[in-house]
Amino acid sequence: MNLKNPFNNSKLPINYLLKNGSVIDPDKNTIEKKDVLIEGKIIKDLKKNISVDEKKFKIIDCNNFFISPGIVDMRVNIGEPGFEHKETIKSACKAAASGGVTSMVCMPNTYPAIDQPAIIQSIQRKAREVSLSKVFCTGCITRGAEGNEICELQLMREFGALGFTDGNKCVSNARVMKRALNYAKSFDGLVIQHAEEPELSQGGMVNEGEFATRMGLTGIPNYSESMIIERDLWLVRDTKCRYHVSHISTKESVEIIRKAKKEGLPITCDTAPPYFMLNELSLENYRTFSKLSPPLRTEEDRNNIINGILDGTVDVIASDHTPHDQDAKRLPFNQAEFGGVGLETLLPMTLNLVKNYNLSLTKAISLITKNPSEILGLKPVRYLQI
Amino acid sequence: MTEEKVFKNYPHKHLLGIEGLLPDSINYLINLSKKYANYLEDNNQKLDDLKNKTCINLFFENSTRTRTSFELAGKKLGADMLNISVGTSSIKKGETLIDTAMTLNAMQPDLIVVRHNDAGAVKLLSEKVNCGVINAGDGPHEHPTQALLDSLTILRRKKTISGLKVAICGDIMHSRVARSNIHLLNTLGAEVRVIGPATLIPKEIESMGVKVFYKMKEGLKDVDVIIMLRLQLERMSGSFVPSIREYFRYYGLNNEKLKYAHSDALVLHPGPMNRGVEIDSELADDLDRSAIFEQVQMGVAVRMACLKALIKDK
Lengths: 386, 314
Fold this sequence. Notes:
The structure holds 2 protein chains of 2 kinds.
Chain A: E1 16-25, E2 30-39, E3 42-47, E4 58-61, E5 66-67, E6 71-76, H1 89-98, E7 101-106, H2 117-130, E8 134-139, H3 153-158, E9 161-164, H4 174-185, E10 190-193, E11 206-207, H5 210-215, E12 219-220, H6 223-239, E13 242-245, H7 251-263, E14 267-271, H8 273-277, H9 299-310, E15 316-317, H10 346-357, H11 361-368, H12 370-376, H13 379-382
Parallel strand pairs in A: 1-4, 1-5, 6-7, 7-8, 8-9, 10-13, 11-12, 13-14, 14-15
Antiparallel strand pairs in A: 1-2, 2-3
Helix pairs in contact in A: 4-6, 6-7, 7-9, 10-11
Chain B: H1 23-42, E1 54-59, H2 65-76, E2 80-85, H3 97-106, E3 111-116, H4 121-126, E4 132-138, H5 144-158, E5 165-169, H6 176-187, E6 191-195, E7 211-213, H7 216-219, E8 225-228, H8 244-251, H9 255-258, E9 266-268, H10 281-284, H11 292-310
Parallel strand pairs in B: 1-2, 1-3, 3-4, 5-6, 5-8, 6-7, 8-9
């Protein structure tokens, strides 16, 4: 293994020429027919009609194909370490590669949780051995994601944490959240929140409303998400720290974030494909496979999420990939785990917006490439250029 | 006993809930129950309708009346009844519901009666077995045989359900009896109301076709039937009601509150009762007004009908 160049994988042929593909450039918002010359995993040239020595380069005819920058998925749960029976770094990387995801950001809800640099290093080492997609880490905001004391944020950042979040847990203590934002501000860190008031959603399984009532399940109200965002906005106003809300699912959240952006606050957000593709009716007959956190909401919420994506309120689409072993899902609804897979389907689900809602292709690609890499500070990854 | 051919049969494999059943299916079950009820009043002898059939009672939650009622119903029809209660079974040893279902299925019973504390669990189990399944209560979701026996009791006292005003009072949120009754009474044309403190009334229950009242005085006005629900203390975490004495004062049924209702209003309670919590002790024992023990009696007849309807000759 080459530690200096961890992504070097000598098994692959080194040189390629991609001929005549339509190259999507989310930066310039253009799609142009160009050739792409790749030498030793580095894009050496990008223009029309490149000619090369056919012996040295493998030429791939990309006529009628689009060439996009690799997808950056900013919310992936990998089970390693701790839950290897659900997903390993290797299986996640394979899933990512087959879905066109070249960079993924894993959540810190592992066991042990990613709350110190050593765990980041260990994950990075394993990812280098697999050497498919790039694996980046986020670190916990609080020790063990327990919501009490903040972790060594700056140290973790030095070792590669791109942002800080308690993953699928909400930092519900306002004082802790304020400290975290304040502290992260001092080194321009990014704080990512899973917005869900834990007391209000305790025991909750599905969206609160008619559907939950009929099914006899405990509901999670829409406002359990939006009240945390609104609370955090007060803290962001004060601290001016960069703040990102993960997987928003409700109409109210879109409205609040839209307003906050107009106000000029440093806030961004993402949503996941289930929240613009499905509504709570997917849970009919107690289908645990659609049991997600946050829960699938109503059709009205779904339409508002789409509007949020179309008008730019939603910055990023992330897969929220949360694999489970089947025994975690083949249970009575209350006992089944939250979450579903998404790495493989992130791109097709995003392209669905292009087909059905007139989102431009470059914008759709921006949502899964340029925007997340800008928020995470991954500039070198996002370009498809020399 | 010969069957009247009013309705051909019960067309479904399972009885998992009232929601979605057509009036014909419901009437078929109620008519069959009526016949068994009449038979039981006159005879003490066992029938052999289900001779050589095996039925398993699988109860993940404690139950006295429902389990005994099913057991008695099966025995009256000549079926072999097996009781599995969770305390002594391998579920305690960590077996999953699906494995339990497949194990029992391999023993080839003719019917399984299941009670489980999670909504939807009975449906999940029914997908994994070949025989019919009766839901004897799944979490706060449905309890179809209870709703059927409530309707049978009402029918014996009031002759018809269509057009009656029925109030369901108390802990609607955690009650499977309320949900099943709302579906059943609406299907048969009654006007259904729910009464309770807002903390115990689930969101958007109006969409199930009920009127919501927060005060007994308003909700009970002119009603013909009052179904009191048990305050499900075991399903409650957090303060849904501040205290039992406050609950009884505002939502407990006594003779005074009963005056708001129609003068011959009938009082039902699915049991077990918390005397002095949701119902006044004296009222509960008043056989003219309350049909609580008649309900238990009808329970056996309804369960006989359900067993008979679901165990089909192969």
